[in-house]
């Protein structure tokens, strides 16, 4: 069983959350992850080269984004969270969020239906609403953002695991659309570099290409790509550095760190920004 649709990647990522949640020293606990991943998630992970060995970046991404979401709500005053292409994300159910927070979960109706059935009667921590929408449909996206524009502010939008599957012009269009929606003050996402895309292409490229979900977006200019569309970098959390901080780095990471000190500063910075979690802010 392999990936056949973009929504299948949600089962795959849920398996990584399940693996972490079942550790005695888990960075986070997602009680729904194993159920949501299901047999499909287990089979997809087993079918991918280095599937388990590459768990650490996904686990780090989840943990760091958890931290940023909680901080945006509790410290910075975000009153609305809009999670685009949310997949099988369960943050409204598992994070310590205030009940007055509004949360919009946006994705294809079938993946939302599957998630709601798997979670069952459990209640979210905040005011959660499921919004079925195909984000590639420009009219549906405008309808969604018109609704967000009438909602509480300030708002945080999340695009976890989405941008890498889009072409640059699609990301640019999304950035402009999000910027046109005044309540959206922050944008939380993950970002790959061209070097990372090349590495992933060698590992998972064939499986993803065959499924019609190729890896596409890894801008050479990094977060500067978003500047001309109205967004500036507020924070960049290097996946490599965060993995070391959280104790989830790959094997021999310490050795690679030592070797990295021999590289020129420009190359060290390129490696540091090869993969990261970014928080953008409206300019």
Topology of helices and strands:
Elements: H1 8-21, H2 33-47, H3 55-74, E1 80-84, H4 91-94, E2 102-107, H5 109-119, E3 127-132, H6 138-149, E4 155-159, H7 168-179, E5 184-192, H8 194-210, E6 231-238, H9 239-246, H10 253-260, H11 265-272, E7 275-282
Structural class: alpha/beta
In the CATH scheme, what's the topology name?
Answer: Rossmann fold
Rough shape? globular
Radius of gyration, taken over Cα atoms and rounded to an integer in Å: 18 Å
Assigned CATH class: Alpha Beta
Q: What is the succession of H and E elements?
A: HHHEHEHEHEHEHEHHHE
Q: Tell me which CATH architecture applies here.
A: 3-Layer(aba) Sandwich
**Unreliable spans:** none
Care to count the β-strands? 7
Major sheet: arrangement of strands:
3-2-1-4-5-7-6
In which range does the helix fraction lie? Answer: 40-55%
**Beta-strand residue fraction:** 15-25%
Distance between the termini: 44 Å
Task: List the total number of helices.
Answer: 11
Can you characterise this structure?
With 283 residues, the chain is α/β, with parallel strands linked by helices. It has a single domain, classed as Rossmann fold (3-Layer(aba) Sandwich), CATH 3.40.50. Helices cover 46% and strands 17% of the residues. It has a seven-stranded mixed β-sheet. The longest helix is centred in the first third of the chain and has 20 residues, at 55-74. The protein starts with 7 loop residues before the first helix and ends with a strand.
Summarize the structure.
With 283 residues, this protein is α/β, with parallel strands linked by helices. It contains eleven helices and seven strands.
């Amino acid at each position: 069983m392999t990936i056949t649709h973009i929504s299948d990647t949600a089962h795959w990522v849920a398996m990584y959350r399940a693996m972490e949640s079942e550790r005695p020293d888990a960075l986070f606990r997602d009680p729904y992850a194993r159920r949501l991943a299901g047999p499909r998630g287990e089979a997809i992970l087993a079918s991918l080269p280095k599937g388990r060995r590459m768990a650490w970046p996904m686990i780090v991404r989840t943990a760091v984004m958890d931290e940023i979401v909680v901080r945006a709500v509790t410290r910075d005053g975000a009153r609305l969270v809009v999670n685009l292409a949310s997949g099988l994300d369960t943050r409204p159910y598992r994070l310590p969020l205030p009940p007055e927070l509004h949360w919009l979960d946006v994705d294809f109706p079938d993946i939302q239906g599957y998630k709601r059935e798997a979670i069952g009667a459990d209640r979210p921590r905040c005011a959660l609403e499921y919004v079925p929408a195909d984000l590639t449909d420009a009219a549906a996206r405008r309808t969604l953002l018109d609704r967000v524009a009438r909602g509480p502010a300030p708002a945080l939008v999340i695009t976890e695991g989405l941008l890498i599957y889009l072409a640059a012009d699609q990301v640019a269009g999304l950035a402009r659309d999000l910027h046109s929606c005044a309540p959206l003050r922050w944008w939380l996402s993950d970002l790959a570099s061209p070097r990372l895309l090349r590495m992933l292409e060698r590992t998972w490229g064939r499986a993803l290409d065959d499924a019609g979900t190729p890896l596409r977006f890894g801008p050479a200019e990094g977060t500067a790509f978003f500047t001309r569309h109205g967004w500036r970098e507020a924070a960049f959390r290097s996946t490599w550095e965060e993995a070391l901080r959280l104790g989830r780095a790959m094997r021999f990471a310490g050795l690679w760190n030592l070797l990295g000190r021999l590289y020129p500063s420009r190359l060290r910075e390129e490696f540091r920004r090869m993969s990261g979690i970014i928080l953008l802010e409206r300019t």
